[in-house]
Amino acid sequence: MCTLVKTRDVTVLLDAGVALGPRFRLMPHPQEYRARDEARKRIEDAATGAKVVTISHYHNDHHTPNFEDPVWLGSSPESLERIYKGKIVLAKDSRRKINTAQRRRGWMFRQTAEKLAEKFEIADGRTFKFGRTTVRFPPPVPHGEDESGLGWVLPCIIERSREKVMFAPDVQGPVVPETVRLILDEEPDTLIMGGPPTYLQGFRIGEEFFQTALRHMERVVQKVPTVVVDHHLLRDEGWYKFLEPVRASAEKSGHRIITAAELAGEEARPLECQRRK
């Protein structure tokens, strides 16, 4: 989900992390390891020109922790330093609206990052001004369903003049009505969000979850001109087909729903969903 946003006033790096995960009881393929290492290098390069780095939550694919993990993350203390040193770090509160595992990770991260950063700020519910650019954080919203055990995530809104970008990672659809209301009330020009984890359908999550996510996505694309859906959804080989009704709703409104790769002018390469092949 890591995204770089530039305005005339400030460059913001959102959720500077990357990770692989266990999928279909298989370890990652060498192609996935190469892609992960390339992504980490791009993140580190992007950080050199960024003044602000944000953290929406403390899952290891959304920030870079202070330890070496060659298996899943490709992380290291050196990588953390290259990303966060000298930056203004705007981070989710690791004490409130958080589950136990993320509270521990957040505390560990802050012990290191606070010493390296120019400034370390808890961002929940706060607004920061950089020239004519506003970087704003609404209160945290659920990571997927309410009471899912996965905790909460902190959306970020970046606005300058009349252009507004909203970043809503890991909202899994969005599946929760309060997150839909927040998006519709904000009326962003571009929304970048995590789609539903359809690869878990029938395994951990029931059909109703995904039908709700689809209905909510259709409402969102009718109001938001550009919707970028990525992350969890692209772990499923059937991700493109799943989006068909949403795509139809978007086109009817003269809007578009695309992947992050398409936003960057590239072809989608969702390697994790192809792991069995």
Describe this structure in words.
Helix 4 runs parallel beside helix 5 and helix 5 runs parallel beside helix 7 (244-252). The chain is 32% helix and 20% strand. The mean pLDDT is 95. The protein has a seven-stranded mixed beta sheet. The protein has helices spanning 30-48, 77-84, 100-116, 177-186, 207-223, 239-242, 244-252, 260-263, and strands at 3-6, 11-14, 52-55, 88-91, 119-122, 127-130, 133-136, 141-142, 152-153, 156-160, 163-168, 190-194, 226-230, 256-258.
Give the low-pLDDT segments: none
* Strand segment count: 14
Strand content: 15-25%
Number of helical stretches of at least 4 residues: 8
Order of helices and strands: EEHEHEHEEEEEEEHEHEHHEH
Characteristics:
single chain, 277 residues, alpha/beta, 5-stranded mixed sheet
